[in-house]
Amino acid sequence: MKKNLLHAAKILLLLFVLTAPVALVAGNNETIARSNGYHSADVIKKIIRYNASAENMCARIAELAKVEAAKAAVEAARAEEAKRAIRLAAMKAEYNLVMNTAIGMYDIMGLESEDLSLKAFEYAWLGYHKLLKKGALHNTDLLTICDFSQSSSRERMYVIDVRNKKVLYKTFVAHGINSGEEFASSFSNQDESCKSSLGFYVTRKTYYGVNGLSLRIDGMDKGFNDNAYRRSIVIHGAPYVSQRILNKYGVMGTTFGCPAIPTEVSEEIIPLMKNGSCFFIYYPSRKYLAQSSVLNGI
Fold this sequence. Notes:
With 298 residues, the chain is α+β, with helices and mostly antiparallel strands. The protein has a domain at 109-291: L,D-transpeptidase catalytic domain-like. The chain is 49% helix and 16% strand. The protein contains six helices and eight strands. An eight-stranded mixed sheet has the order 3-2-1-8-4-5-6-7. The longest helix has 69 residues, at 40-108.
């Protein structure tokens, strides 16, 4: 019996020895944890608070980024508006300079006494300047104006030496048969219309055809005369465009749309005009003046 009790006591003592350090360690750990304030619940709360704070920060950053982007957009719009204002001011200044030059040229050459209206010359000079600026002209010393606001019985084509500021030729020029009789009033860019086409042209090469020496021209006004080359609209001499015909029939001859000139001067004028000079057919058409790609281009 004593042996059994002694054996049990040994076992209990052994168990106490084995378990006591674990308990002590656990107690010490708990004490340390408590002293450091380290609890899993606290950690979770801190993580939640951190995530919430991070989300708020990100939202705030995004909001600030939107504000900055809006400010940048406003500044960009202001900068673009300033550039636009500068461009408009420059264009206005350039336009005023061109118009003042036109008035000066008009007076120097005495074009009023030659029956060419100031408006016709101003538009011609503006278009000449625009084409010159674009590099479309190669024969830059010459500007030819057909003033179709005048009667066909008048010498209404003016070949002007820009460099020396003088009129080289003033002569008759015919309009298309379907554009009118004495006065041209109807114009077209369509094939087989037999009408004249308003606007600015650039002269090209010469050739000899059924009307003798002829000059090809390229229409530069989109929608108004840009079919001229395809329509075979050319400058050529014609015996039915002369003072003799006017005296005999009381009206000048007409064409299928070509700006024909008297045969007796065609051999002199056409060689001067060829290879890239400015040729302008004018009429005070509100539609043309408002929509001309040459006059209203930048």
